[in-house]
Write a sequence for this structure.
């Protein structure tokens, strides 16, 4: 029998951390669904096994109304984090117990039950999101979000790169854009959208409101905003950069119920680039092979291609990011 209730445990743990975000997650957990579930199984959370805990979290999340699968996944991970650390707190301050939340396979199993099997992130998935945009948004706004997705997929690493290139950086004949110390090759669809939307002065917004569609300090890429150009030029770069990221994490998500982060689009684009250059079999070997740079020709080839693509971070991080795209 547990030496304290789940409510007491979570209150004590959150008080010990003093973190407001922990308190916020705790409020999600301490709901009527938790009390009903504990009464149903006759146990406090620290007494439950793996399957019972998945059922408990599922019951808690079922109380969350109007959130999509991406938000469900995020909320599950936050609740799982809270419980995992609260159970460790219980072992330290009350009695030692087995912590099922530290089982590395539990998250995937739980999400398969609560959210459904994880969707394979590939070019087809990206195109499916883009197609849905046109069913849920005005055409000009759908084209704009499609452009943002395709720019990241073609090789822009972050929003700042998109927000700062000028017309002089564009080779209109080759459809390339010079960014930093390398060229980003745009696809036909991406380049056509970029040029088409550059010609607009206004863009539709929420509640049929028309937004100004303006550059940021002379950028070729434009932004929908209620601000005038002089005011918009005074905005700091972090705001402008993050607004591009939020087009995906907020606007696209709200429009179609699913999205891809800019990093996912960037790495997917690079993975598909590797497949185009080397073929899928060799590209997968580059990503999965053991060893470090300097003693493995596959990794040497990967890093050479990555540098031409504009990637500058560690090869270990790159291979880790690309593994989710490898098809066994």
């Amino acid at each position: 029998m547990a030496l304290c209730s789940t409510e007491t445990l979570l209150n004590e743990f959150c008080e010990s951390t003093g973190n407001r975000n922990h308190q916020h997650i705790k409020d999600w957990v301490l709901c009527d669904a938790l009390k009903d579930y504990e009464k149903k199984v006759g146990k406090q959370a620290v007494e439950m096994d793996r399957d019972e805990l998945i059922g408990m979290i599922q019951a808690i999340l079922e109380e969350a109304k109007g959130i999509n699968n991406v938000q469900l996944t995020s909320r599950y991970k936050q609740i799982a984090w809270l419980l995992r650390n609260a159970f460790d707190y219980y072992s330290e301050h009350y009695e030692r117990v087995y912590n099922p939340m530290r089982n590395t396979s539990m998250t995937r199993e739980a999400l398969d039950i609560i959210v459904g099997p994880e969707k394979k992130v590939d070019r087809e998935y990206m195109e499916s999101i883009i197609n849905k945009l046109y069913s849920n948004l005005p055409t000009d706004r759908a084209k704009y979000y499609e452009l943002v997705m395709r720019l990241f997929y073609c090789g822009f690493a972050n929003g700042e790169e998109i927000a700062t290139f000028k017309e002089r950086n564009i080779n209109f004949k080759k459809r390339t854009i010079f960014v930093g110390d390398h060229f980003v090759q745009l696809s036909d669809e991406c380049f056509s959208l970029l040029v088409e939307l550059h010609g607009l002065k206004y863009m539709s917004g929420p509640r049929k409101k028309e937004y100004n569609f303006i550059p940021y300090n002379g950028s070729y890429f434009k932004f929908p905003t209620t601000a005038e150009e002089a005011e918009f030029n005074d905005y700091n770069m972090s705001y402008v950069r993050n607004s591009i990221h939020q087009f995906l994490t907020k606007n696209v998500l709200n429009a179609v119920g699913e999205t891809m982060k800019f990093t996912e689009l960037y790495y997917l684009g690079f993975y598909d680039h590797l497949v185009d250059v080397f073929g899928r079999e060799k590209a997968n070997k580059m990503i999965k092979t053991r060893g470090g740079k300097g003693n493995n020709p596959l990794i040497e080839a990967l890093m050479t291609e990555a540098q031409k693509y504009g990637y500058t971070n560690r090869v270990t991080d790159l291979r880790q990011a690309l593994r989710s795209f490898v098809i066994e």
About this structure: Residues 69-93 form the longest helix (25 residues). Strands lie at 170-171, 176-179, 182-185, 202-204, 210-215, 222-225. The chain has two domains: 6-114, 120-328. DSSP finds 16 helices and six strands in the chain.
